[in-house]
Each structure stands twice: as structure tokens, then as C-alpha cells.
Design a protein that fits this description.
With 533 residues, this protein is an alpha+beta fold. It is 65% helix and 7% strand. The chain is built from 21 helices and eight strands. Strands 1, 2, 5, 6, 7 and 8 form a six-stranded mixed sheet that branches. The longest helix is centred in the N-terminal third of the chain and has 39 residues.
Length: 533
């Protein structure tokens, strides 16, 4: 297997992950406790939790199946006191008319009062609202398929940590080396203007594609799905009080880091990019031995990081297999249940932009064969699908563009780090469709002017969306506010966001790579001569 080209190895790993994940989910995807488990008062700290959970004494019962998870908790009564109310929790997507009481629950304890019911859509939401029950589920209630998936996910997360380990120094050294290779600040200005115009153009095209498909299919109309619960999504709704100008001003402030070393430590890519560009520009202005020293140091650092990236890339088939296996087992085809039309709309729009719009841009502007270029970038595209992170994929994207697609280093080192932070075609497209879906689900008809507001706002906030998983959900709050839609409806689409995040990250990375080819074609200059003393 390891004699195959790396993109074939990754593809084989993805296919194996899906096949084995579906098989294991079918064979061992369900687990039901025969009797409630007596749980003593204790402190539990399981993998996936930042802090330990205080678990009181009581009886715990669980039924883990592919469609949903059922949990029942009966607290133990103190001596001389009446027992507390039994809590029954349903995790998963449900239709609006679902009767929680009619699900296959165990018998209530003797003398128990009428049970209380809680519905959450994801295990992450359960962890945010009832950390004690989440810890008990991880410790005692998971099916064999989920346990194996969670173990393999740890292996995939280690692989992502290795990619993130090299991403920050790679961006720092590559941008400084790229600026130094231009030789003069005027060439840097021209390249920046071309890159920015390309990103603006493709993001606008992506938003138009999203609006087109959302109006053609109209997802959410006549759908029998309950809207989300605002509780448990506080980490997304924290943005609710911010207006668009506040969000954009924060991005401007991020361009000027008060502590560049803190920005490097916290992986604030917008700050790292601006600081790296400034270092390169002022090294050129200093000239002489200073410029030569900075050039040699940046080029040496970039060479070392690229060698490290290529070494990590050999582990990509294993990392991709682990990550995709976890997604297949824990979500699989069940996410299509109540949100199938919405997900289909997003898929069709992403495919239109990735398979029609961007190849046309690549053929008309870059004069390159889209199929051959996609083959060269296939390791990065497959990595983007499994990691759901443009920044984590950045080292692989740079290695593929330079080593396999033949894009000059001075172009890759400037265009790709910038694109991984500010060019989010897939995210902008997804946000537009999601907002129109929420509007249809809420029974609100958006006028043409309101859709223009959605498009304009999505274009602006996509520039500030960080290249990390679920960043689009945070930025969507701003768009929902702009047209007066309910923020709590966002809780509904969080349940299926992971699968869509994988797809839109592929489009983000493909757009960045297409921009490399376009900018390279219009950059007719030869490599810069040595800086004069």
C-alpha cells in the first residue's frame, strides 16, 4: 500500500473507514442496559471533558443506538427525604410531534414522581448541560461501535496535532520567505491586490450559487422539525450581542497584535500573517546584510518545516482513516433523517461551485487543466475532508501545490496562508443556505432586499471566519441578526454541521489552491535578484 501515491493511500483509507464504520455500526451499534446501574457519589473525568464532573449517588440507565441515545437518571434520596424527580434524556434529532414518553424507557423506581424529560440534539450539547450524565454515558453506556470509534478518534486527533504543530512556523517562515523572494515592496503590493480581488470574486460567486440553490429547492418549507433550544449553545450565542461593524473592527484589531509571540502561541493566524508580512517588508527596506540574513533564516526555516510536513504526510492514510471512521460510526446516514433536503441543498451548491465555477476560473484565468490540477491537489482535498480545518490542512496544501502542481514557492507561500484565513467560499455559501433554511423553517419569507443583506453580510463575515471547525456557526449569528431571524434556530443545524463542515472545507481549500494557479499565471516576473547592499 505504501508504494502507491499518497493520494491513493488516503483514498483507500477513506473507503476502508466508511465500509468498516458502517459494518461495525450495523453489527455492534446498539447497547441497552438490562437493569439500571447503581452509581455511588463520585467524581468522573473521562476523555473529551475539560473538567471533572461531580456525580451524585443514584441509578443510571442507558440505551445507545444509531438513531438516538436514551438516558435515565434517578437520584438517590437522602435518608428521611423524598426521592428527587427522575430525569429522562433523549439525544438525537426528533420530529416536531415526537412523544418522548412513548420511547422504550425502563420501569420507573417505586414511589417515583412523574419523570422530567430533556431533549438535546448532540452529545456535545449534553456535555454542556449535564456533564455528570455525559461522563456516566462515556464510562458505562456506550455501544461497542462507539467505544472503538472514540478510541480511533484519539489517534486521528494526534495526527491533527502534528499538522497544527507545523502550521504556525510554516506560515511564519513561508510568508517571510515569500516576501523576501519578491525583492521589492511594489511587487508585494501587486500580488496582494490580485489575491484580494480573486478572493472577493470567488466568495461572491459562491454566495450567488448558494442563493440560487436555496431559492430553487427552498429547504425548510413545510418541514416538520422542531426549532432548536438556545440552552446548551452558549458558546455560539455569545456573539449575539455583536453587530457587524463590531465583528469587522475586531478583525482589524487582530491585524495589529499587541504581542506577536502570544499570537504565535495561540495560533491567531490573522495576526501571524500581518506580522510576518511586516517583518518581510521592513527587512527589504533595511536591505544589505540584514535582508540577506532574514532571507537565509526564513528560507532555512521554511525548508525544515516543509521536510517535516512531508514526513507527517506519510501518516495521513492512518489519520484520515481514524477521523472518518469516527464520523461514520457516530453519525453515518442517520443525519439525513429530518434535515435531508437542507443537506442536499448544501451538497448541490458546494458541488456546483467546486465542480463548475472554480474549474471554469482555473481554465479561463489560469489556463490550466482543472482535472490534472485537482489530481495534483488531491492529498490536500482529501485531508481537508477528514480534518474539517483549513489551517490544519495548510501544510499539506502547500506541499501539494509546490511539489505536485508546480506552483512557484513565492506564490504558494503568500497566497495559501492568506487564503486559509480570509478565503472561505464554502463557508459563505453554507451560511447563506443555512440562513434561508432557518427562515423557511420559521415561516418567514425573506424579500429580495433581505437576501441581498444576507449575501453582503455573509461576504464580509466569511473574511473573518477562522479556519477551524465550526467557525461558520459562530459567524452565522451575525447574519441571523442582520435579518431578524431567531438565534435559537441555529441549534437545529448544529446536529449535522460536522458532515457539512467536512464538505465545505474541501471547497475552501480547493478555492485557495485555484487562487495559487491564477495568481501564478499573472505573476510574469522572474525570481528576484539578490538584495543589493
Amino acid at each position: 500500500m505504501f508504494r502507491l501515491a499518497i493520494h491513493w493511500q488516503i483514498l483507500i483509507g477513506m473507503v476502508l473507514a466508511v465500509v468498516l464504520g458502517v459494518a461495525l455500526k450495523w453489527l455492534a451499534g446498539s447497547y441497552r442496559m438490562e437493569q439500571p446501574l447503581d452509581v455511588p457519589a463520585q467524581v468522573l473525568h473521562v476523555l473529551g471533558m475539560d473538567q471533572p464532573a461531580q456525580v451524585p449517588a443514584g441509578k443510571f440507565w442507558c440505551h445507545d443506538e444509531p438513531q438516538r441515545v436514551l438516558l435515565q437518571w434517578a437520584p438517590q434520596a437522602e435518608q428521611g427525604q423524598t426521592p428527587g424527580a427522575v430525569l429522562r434524556v433523549v439525544v438525537g434529532l426528533l420530529p416536531a410531534d415526537a412523544d418522548l414518553a412513548r420511547m422504550p424507557w425502563p420501569r420507573l423506581p417505586q414511589a417515583a414522581a412523574k419523570p422530567q424529560y430533556l431533549h438535546v440534539r448532540t452529545l456535545e450539547e449534553l456535555q454542556a448541560r449535564r456533564a455528570d450524565l455525559f461522563a456516566l454515558f462515556v464510562r458505562h453506556g456506550r455501544s461497542a461501535a462507539r467505544r472503538w470509534a472514540d478510541r480511533l478518534r484519539l489517534l486521528g486527533l494526534l495526527f491533527l496535532r502534528m499538522l497544527r504543530m507545523v502550521s504556525v512556523p510554516l506560515v511564519l517562515f513561508s510568508l517571510i520567505a515569500g516576501v523576501m523572494s519578491l525583492g521589492e515592496t511594489a511587487r508585494l503590493g501587486r500580488m496582494f491586490l490580485r489575491t484580494f480581488l480573486y478572493y472577493l470574486m470567488t466568495s461572491a460567486l459562491a454566495i450567488c450559487v448558494g442563493l440560487l440553490w436555496a431559492n430553487l429547492i427552498a429547504p425548510g418549507k413545510n418541514a416538520q422539525i422542531a426549532l432548536g433550544d438556545p440552552q446548551g449553545h452558549e458558546h455560539f450565542l455569545l456573539q449575539a450581542g455583536k453587530s457587524l461593524d463590531v465583528i469587522l473592527w475586531e478583525q482589524v484589531e487582530t491585524l495589529i497584535p499587541t504581542n506577536p509571540f502570544a499570537a504565535l502561541a495561540q495560533a491567531q493566524f490573522l495576526s501571524i500573517i500581518s506580522f510576518s508580512l511586516l517583518v518581510g517588508v521592513f527587512a527589504l527596506l533595511a536591505g544589505g546584510e540584514v535582508a540577506q540574513t532574514v532571507r537565509r533564516g526564513a528560507q532555512a526555516g521554511f525548508t525544515v518545516m516543509m521536510r517535516m510536513t512531508l514526513a507527517i504526510l506519510y501518516l495521513a492514510p492512518v489519520g484520515v482513516f481514524a477521523l472518518l471512521f469516527h464520523v461514520t460510526v457516530t453519525q453515518g446516514l442517520n443525519v439525513f433523517g429530518g434535515l435531508g433536503v437542507y443537506m442536499l441543498t448544501v451538497f448541490l451548491a458546494l458541488c456546483t461551485h467546486a465542480a463548475v465555477v472554480l474549474p471554469l476560473v482555473l481554465w479561463l484565468l489560469a489556463r490550466r487543466n482543472p482535472w490534472h490540477y485537482a489530481q495534483a491537489l488531491s492529498p490536500a482535498l482529501l485531508m481537508a475532508f477528514s480534518s474539517s480545518s483549513s489551517n490544519a490542512t495548510l501544510p499539506v496544501t502547500m506541499a501539494s501545490a509546490e511539489e505536485r502542481a508546480g506552483v512557484p514557492n513565492r506564490i504558494c507561500s503568500f497566497v495559501l496562508p492568506l487564503g486559509a484565513t480570509v478565503n472561505m467560499d464554502g463557508t459563505a455559501l453554507y451560511e447563506v443556505i443555512a440562513v434561508l433554511f432557518i427562515a423557511n423553517l420559521s415561516g418567514i419569507e425573506l424579500t429580495l432586499f433581505q437576501q441581498v443583506v444576507v449575501a453582503y453580510t455573509a461576504l464580509l463575515v466569511s473574511i473573518g471566519a477562522a479556519g477551524i471547525p465550526h467557525a461558520g456557526l459562530v459567524m452565522m449569528v451575525v447574519i441571523l441578526q442582520a435579518v431578524g431571524l431567531p438565534l435559537e434556530a441555529q441549534g437545529l443545524i448544529i446536529a449535522v454541521d460536522r458532515v457539512l463542515d467536512m464538505c465545505r472545507t474541501v471547497v475552501n481549500v480547493w478555492s485557495d489552491a485555484t487562487g495559487c494557479a491564477v495568481i501564478s499565471r499573472f505573476d510574469r516576473t522572474e525570481p528576484a535578484p539578490a538584495v543589493a547592499s
